[in-house]
Amino acid sequence: MEEIYDLIILGGGPASMSAGIYAMQTRQKTLLIEKETFGGQVSTTSSVTNYLGFPQISGRELSEKMHEHLVGTGIEIKHEEITKTELDSKIKKVYTHNNCYKSYAVIIGIGTTIRKLGVENESKYLKVGLSYSSLNDRDKFENKVVAVVGGGNSAIEDAIYLSEKAKKVYLIHRRQEFRADNKLVEDLHKICQTNKIELCLEYKPHSIVGDSKVEGLKITHIPTGDIKTLDVDGIFVAIGRGASTDIIDEKVLRNDAGYIVTNEKMETNLDGVYAVGDIRTTPIRQIVTATSDGAIAALTSLTYIKKIKD
Ligand code: NDP
Questions:
Q1: Distance from the CA of 270 to the center of ligand 1, in angstroms?
Q2: Which of 21, 100, 168, 300 is the most exposed place for a label (fewest CB within 10 A)?
Q3: How far apart, in whole angstroms, are the C-alpha atoms of residue 108 and residue 9?
């Protein structure tokens, strides 16, 4: 007889892991599918200081603790890449390269993807000076000069983290005000006084300089249009993330920016389909809100699954 899960959870970030823990507690036959690393964006965050119970913890360690908790529930996990989903009927279908998994309910927690700079030949410089992760690549830039692009929490955290090893860090942001939390901005300004970090405000990246590796970054002063070149060995991009939902059934409603529309119970427009964490429309994207989404979706799905199986 073909196997039908009560619930399939797509993705392995905090929202999905939390959903998995609640689903297992409520004895739902659950499968969680994650292609690569557990923890999603959190796993690449250098330091988390606002998750209850952990005054200061690295994103990687927090992800590992969450994963350990999840695995301890006995949940079934598949490390496969999802290629397609069909979610508009009683039995939902989730396709990977080699399999098709079926369930009564699906929770979508696939997170978001890194936003690229959008400059010419960007991909050519990846691993030869251009990076989207200070956590993975900081050590390559010990005593070197680097640029960080962005003005949110990620960019400020990256600039501070990199300044501990780099000779100098330029922080390039397109506005005067930072989007990041006040506490981080205060920390940043303290380091700026030592000249270890230099701010380039109201600037945007123009182009990358270098033949076979990054040797500089041209930036445009937005108010005047003037272009100047920073001699840098590395460029760290931290300009946020965007929704990428190509693998999700097109009948699942998205907003104009591509995020999946849910109500407060994490229900999408399709019966038995829920979305959690960064991929859903939400004004706040934090670890704590993601884990809360996961709990709500798993508990809401329980009622639906019971009804549909009767
Ligand atoms: P954000 O979306 O918060 O910030 C992105 C930054 O990049 C903004 O300053 C934005 O400028 C700038 N930007 C966007 N697009 C471009 C572009 N094309 N060119 C130049 N600059 C651009 O992303 P983050 O990754 O910083 O944070 C994402 C979420 O994760 C947030 O909710 C954040 O609070 C959270 N987070 C929390 C952490 C923690 O609690 N420890 C750590 C890291 C992230 P502008 O401001 O002008 O729009």
A1: 31
A2: 100
A3: 6
Residue 27's nearest CA partner among 74, 69, 68 is: 74
Nearest to 237 by CA among 284, 205, 212, 278: 205
Instruction: Say if residue 64's pLDDT is above 90.
Output: yes
Half-sphere exposure of 10 (CA within 13 A, CB side): 33
Q: How far is the CA of 116 from the centre of ligand 1 (A)?
A: 12
Q: How far apart are CA 63 and CA 290, in angstroms?
A: 13
Q: Is 263 in the pocket of ligand 1 (CB under 6 A)?
A: no
- Report pLDDT digits (tens) over 273-284: 999 999 999 999
What is the best residue among 50, 154, 157, 293 to mutate for testing ligand 1's pocket, by most ligand atoms within 8 Å of CB? 154
> If you average pLDDT over residues 189-207, what whole number do you get?
97
The partner residues of 241 in beta bridges, in order of sequence, read 114
What six digits make up the tokens of 287? 């670890």
In the prediction, which pLDDT does 305 show? Answer: 97
Please give the angle made by the CA atoms of 211, 214 and 218, to the nearest 5 degrees. Answer: 95
Which H or E run contains 77? strand 76-78
| Ligand 1 site-directed mutation target among 153, 202, 259, most atoms within 8 Å of CB | 153
Closest atom of ligand 1 to CA, residue 278: 29
